[in-house]
Specification:
Number of helices: 7
Oligomer: single chain
Order of helices and strands: EEHHHHEHHEHEEEE
Structural class: alpha/beta
CATH architecture of the largest domain: 3-Layer(aba) Sandwich
Largest sheet: 5 strands, parallel
Helix content: 25-40%
Strand order of the largest sheet: 3-2-4-5-6
CATH topology of the largest domain: Rossmann fold
Radius of gyration: 17 Å
């Protein structure tokens, strides 16, 4: 069960040697655009669904999302190049609406670099989408190597993305901290054996209760002089 947000400083239960970020909703404020692109792609296939009914797919891969919706609706989704349509809609929305990094992310990355704490990201999204998001907010140079949904056979909530991300850092998964914004992402990181901090950028606190800590602002994370990551 996650700890409630407190006024005093709280350290994680054990030191961490690396940080693994989720992308959408943690690094980049893109969850709404991603869901809107999904909604538009479904409309192309003749399936009308309200945005609120699609939030349960946050953190899931495009393929798994479309497969589940196809099974539920009886509408053919996987055979209509809908994955490509989804990506095109997302690119169009980014161009028209723009993207920004989530508050506090540039500062946290700078602090990790200053303390020589390695970091990467683990996303269920396609590599092309992740690269577009990172490039749009100026974060691409910070993540020369990362894990996308194209790199694993199972997306979140399976542990595969986080296990693969730990592997590219050459650090044990149990020594890594995951920063997430969705229930599926939290389950993925915990299944990989990681400690998890959840940020309420996308879901309310009660939906994130499986995380070790929940913060309303990424700027609540601090790195001590000894390199410990703390919730303040």
């Amino acid at each position: 069960m996650a700890n409630e947000q407190r006024d005093e400083t709280c350290s994680l239960r054990s030191p961490v040697r690396a940080v693994i970020f989720d992308c959408d909703g943690v690094l980049v404020d893109s969850e709404v655009l991603g869901l809107r692109a999904l909604q538009m792609a479904l409309q192309d296939a003749g399936l009308e669904m309200p945005m609120e009914s699609l939030t349960r797919f946050s953190g899931r891969s495009h393929h798994e999302t479309l497969a589940e919706l196809e099974q539920e609706s009886g509408v053919s989704l996987l055979g209509n190049n809908l994955d490509e349509r989804l990506q095109l809609h997302y690119m169009g929305l980014v161009r028209s609406s723009g993207l920004r990094s989530c508050p506090g992310i540039p500062e946290l990355i700078a602090a990790l670099k200053q303390k020589s704490i390695p970091f990467t990201l683990a996303s269920s999204g396609p590599r092309q989408k992740v690269l577009l998001s990172l490039r749009s907010v100026g974060l691409e140079p910070e993540f020369p190597d990362f894990i996308s949904g194209d790199d694993v056979s199972r997306a979140k909530p399976a542990p595969d993305p986080y296990l693969a991300a730990a592997a590219i850092l050459n650090i044990k998964a149990s020594d890594c901290l995951a920063i997430e914004d969705s229930p599926n992402g939290i389950r993925s990181a915990r299944a990989a054996g990681m400690q998890v901090i959840a940020v309420t950028n996308t879901y309310k606190r009660e939906m994130l209760a499986e995380a070790d800590f929940i913060v309303d602002d990424i700027q609540k994370l601090a790195i001590s002089k000894t390199g410990r990551i703390e919730v303040i």
